[in-house]
Amino acid sequence: MDPDILVRGLTAGSLYALVAVSFNILYRPTNVFNFAQGELVMLGAMLFAAGKSTVGLPWPLALLATLAAVGTLGLAEEFIAVAPILARSKTGTGWVITTLAISLIVSNLVGWIWGPDPILVKPPAPLSLDTFEFAGLRLNSYVIALAALTIALVALIERAYRTLQGKAVLAVAEDREAALLRGINPARLSRWSFFLGGAFAGLTGILAAPILYASTSMGPALLLKGFAAAAVGSIGNNRGALIAGYLIGITEAVGASLLSPGYQEAVVFLVVLTVLLMRPQGLFGLATTRTV
Amino acid sequence: MTRSDRRSVQSGDLDRRALLAGGATSAASFLIAGPGRTQTEPFRIGWVRPTTGRLVSSFAPLYVSGLVAVKEINAAGGILGRQIMTIEEDDEGSPSKEPAVVKKLQEAGVKMICGPTGSSQVLSSLATSTPAKILQGGIANGVENSDGEKYPYHYQCGFTTVQEARRFVEYLVKSLGKSKIGILQENTGFGEQGGQATLEIMKELGLQPTSHQVYPIAAPDLKAYVTNVKNSGAEAVIFWVGTLPAAGMALRAMGELNWAPPIVGHSYLLADSLFDLVPIDALRNVNAVYYRSFTYTDRDSPGERQREFARKIQEYPETKRLEAIVPQATLYDFIYLAKAAIEAEKSFDVDAIKRQLDQTTGHKGLMGTFSFTAKNHAGLALDDIVLAAVASGRDQRAHGSFRERAPGM
């Protein structure tokens, strides 16, 4: 078997895990799946690429500006497309349509502003995409950093959930009304989650851009697999999302190598389907009983 | 005035004031001269393209050659004295929208359509435009669209996937002496048609691909596919790759594998932005299909007509860095062919235009020489289709639109 499979799996898996985590950040306090998340990832990549190449901003400044911009857009989305729906009914599902509408608007706007050409984003020095051999593997420093950063980000987010604010988010996720009675403001947490989820999607786009190029087509490419990682890892579970992201990335790479790359999509979705049929709550979720 | 009229775009052809003035003149002539008025009304051409959606900016440059033709013809007095007016309809680049768009144009009395773009989109629109007897020039490479018996009112002025495939295979086999050829193909209608045509032409020469890799259009990584092609022992690769990010990822994967075989591929590889994605050294062995009339060699240069066209398209901001893509959409030649047919018949009747077009032999167009028959509506001569060096996009002689012809072509 080609030893590079592991590298390819880790690269793709890191990106899928990051998208899955960005889903989770939004989902926990709101129970809303943001179907515009893929486009927010793409927007992050495009804004960053434009900031770096067109405006000439240094890496850290372009990074901060992008996170702030995409986070603000996430916040605006919450105001326009989610809060009014949830205000009418906590169990309403109209956000499926409204977040899809936001997705279309973002996609159209980005295409209109930047056009069809992909933009090359170089990794920040001293990282590079130049390959070197290590223990029979063809690696590059950016892929190693990407995998390490993905794990560190998930650890950081998990740690954040242990703070008072984080526990408030978990309380809202558990029981919105009960949390309200305990003095927690779910609406405020919802807004924060959309801001942070948007910023995290922007960060994912920035990290993906050196590998995939910044282009209008990168959102859909990541959205589906990211969603699959969130589902397999149990919705709302970030450690699960991380493991499921790598599981999907490596399955994809192994399937491509052992069967044919043409079957890799089918192999991935077969694995996802099998996991969800056997454990509908995902690999790391707990089955719950509900009295009706 | 219909809603379609109100939505018409004026890109240097006929503006709203001119139309109103023309309308007033028409009304006056009607009052004075009676029913002969129709010859002074603008000749309306449906302009089907996405104005909303993800594909707006990628498809916009493909309509510029048509806009140039309309502007030139209107400046020279129009067709039989009638100015051309474009009636724009938004198809969002979606095949499912095409029947409704064509129906709307039909109801507005439009008898000729430019667009849509894409093989699937064109086929979808033909289902409505054919029974409606609307003359159509779609922007697509699919060979099925050029079947004159099935789609008698549709004319294809660009190269077809079969012509492309023939050029690819013959160049690799006969000019470069390569017989171990791999195929890298996207899983779209375009990719399927191109891949299939390649297999058939290789079979004619007694060859089979060493590896035929089909990747999903949204694949985030092409290294596995490229590795398989390399491991199959391929000495050359045919790219049926229609997007730049995929082309960039495939070329980068080849660089990581220290593999630089000769590559031939679709014309989108000529987009200038490919130079941003991969180093120029990675493009030295890459050739893409193009028009002979837009290529140069040490002894041959593009003609004055082509140079004038290359200057004109630079007035359109949407063509920036895509100058070599603009000629791919041969609306320019389609509109001029229709003009010639109308003038020969002295009639705007669609059946008369079709009759004349079907007899076209050796029409010298901008991109090449066109000949149609009632059966064959892919009119461009194979000899006018060549391979061009992608890296020559950085030559001083390129001027945006031109490329160096591959040796031996």
Notes on the structure:
The complex is a heterodimer of chains A (292) and B (409). Chain A has helices spanning 4-30, 37-55, 59-88, 95-114, 141-160, 164-174, 176-181, 186-212, 218-232, 238-258, 264-278, and strands spanning 131-134, 137-140. Chain A is mainly alpha-helical and 292 residues long. Chain A has one domain. In chain A, strands 1-2 form a two-stranded antiparallel sheet. By secondary structure, chain B is an alpha/beta fold. Chain B has two domains: 3-140 and 331-365, Rossmann fold; 161-298 and 385-404, Response regulator (Rossmann fold, 3-Layer(aba) Sandwich). Chain B contains 14 helices and 14 strands. In chain B, the strands form four sheets. In chain B, strands 6-5-7-8-9-13 form a six-stranded mixed β-sheet, sandwiched between helices. A four-stranded parallel β-sheet of chain B has the order 2-1-3-4. A two-stranded parallel ribbon of chain B has the order 10-14.
Produce a short descriptive summary.
Chain A has 292 residues and is an all-alpha fold. Chain A is built from 11 helices and 2 strands. Chain B is an alpha/beta fold.
Structural shape of chain A = globular
Number of strands of chain A: 2
C-alpha end-to-end distance of chain A: 52 Å
**CA distance, first residue to last residue of chain B:** 52 Å
Number of helical runs of chain A? Answer: 11
Q: Report the uncertain regions of chain B.
A: 1-23, 25-37
Low-confidence parts of chain A, pLDDT < 50 over ≥5 residues? none
The CATH homologous superfamily of the largest domain in chain B is called Response regulator
Query: Do you know the CATH topology of the largest domain in chain B?
Result: Rossmann fold
Lateral strand order in the biggest sheet of chain B: 6-5-7-8-9-13
Q: Largest sheet of chain B, described in full? A: 6 strands, mixed
Total tally of structural domains of chain B? 2
Strand proportion of chain B, as a percent range, falls in 15-25%
Helix content of chain B: 25-40%
